[in-house]
Amino acid sequence: MWQIISVITHWLFEYWNTRRKGYEEEHGRLLRRRRLLMLRLLRQRRRRNVVKSCWAYPTTGRFWEEVVPTYSDISFLKHFGIGRETFQCLVDELYVDLVRENTNMRRSIPVDKRIAVALTVLKNSDDFLSVAKHFGIGKSTVHLILKEFSSAVCKTLYDKIVTFPATVTEREEIVNAFSNTWHFPGCMGALGTSHIPILSPSLSSSSYLNKEGYHSIVLLVVVDHQYTFRYADVGQPGGMNDAEIFLKSELYNFLCREVLPEEFHLIAGSSFPLRKWLMTPFPSNESKDSMQKRYDYHLQKATTPVEIAFGHLRGRWKILFKRCDLQLDNMINIVKTCLVLHNLCESNGDHYFDSWDENVCEERKTFVQPLHVENLTDRSQEGFSKRNELAIILY
């Protein structure tokens, strides 16, 4: 009897333990499900209260909106390199090319602010990150704005602003100005070159290495009596000499085709070839008489506009004498843009500060302009005869 009771008791005890374990496991599963459900509800509530900012990080730069409106005309000119009237002219001319539509994510950057960003980079040659913080935009946006601005200037304004004198009246005005100011007859403009430092190109980098040991592109220009650029060839490798660059330019082909009046010509240094429409100094390897020395003196004085124009160009736009982190094609557009801006400033009478020259002198120590190699062989007989005639007139 006691054996039967013991067996029944043991069976009941095992049965109860089995049911209790099953209950505990089920209860544990229910608790875990409840906790997971509570975590999901909490996450959903947090997502509802968080403002999404995946399009752009918030910025605090209010330089253009709050500081620039307080600038005087002189302060505005010193910071952006151009006067307010010239600035507004750019806004009007480039509005169609630079305007952007607003999106659902954010408002577009106004055209005037875009131009201000690009001018700040060109004028002060600041790195993109500091300009971005200044204006409250992204670093990549600064790079994009500079690229779009230079492209728009080259597309819309370059052919209008940088023009070779075409009409007889225009040519006579320049000739008379050179004759009255520098006492050199028949001069339609002065020819010169300048090296612009660049990063080492990925292709044919050795051809861009100039004699001073840095990579550069060459800017070939014609300058008139008002220190404005009337022609420019940009982008030839810095390893080429002045004569090679000139012979490959569109200007050379144009002057070979164009029948200029006999008394009209350009002037240049001894590194250029002598032609009937391009007067150069007498060779230095030959003994010169007083008549030839007087001719060389007047010709050197008449090339002063080139030196002044290059000085103002570099002083106003520092990006041209600091090696900039831009690709070759973009750098060519940047140089052309600076030429247009220079001509606009000179035409509108925007003041040039002497302090800008001091900065240029300091930077010249880093990127020294290569010496010009004298061209002693390439001279035409017509040019030789005309140079002698001019030497007699000037004596």
List the helices and strands and how they pair.
Elements: H1 2-49, H2 63-67, H3 73-80, H4 84-98, H5 111-124, H6 128-135, H7 139-156, H8 158-161, H9 168-182, E1 187-197, E2 216-223, E3 229-237, H10 242-248, H11 250-257, E4 265-267, E5 278-279, H12 290-302, H13 304-316, H14 328-348, H15 355-364, H16 381-394
Parallel strand pairs: 1-4, 4-5
Antiparallel strand pairs: 1-2, 2-3
Question: How would you portray this structure in words?
Answer:
GO terms for molecular function: hydrolase activity; metal ion binding; nuclease activity. Residues 193-343 form the DDE Tnp4 domain. Its cofactor is a divalent metal cation. Keywords: Hydrolase, Metal-binding, Nuclease, Nucleus. The chain has 395 residues and is an alpha/beta fold. It has three domains: 1-50; 63-156; 164-394, no CATH class. 56% of the residues lie in helices and 8% in strands. It contains 16 helices and five strands. Helix 4 (84-98) packs across helix 7 and helix 6 crosses helix 7. The protein is elongated and about 155 Å long.
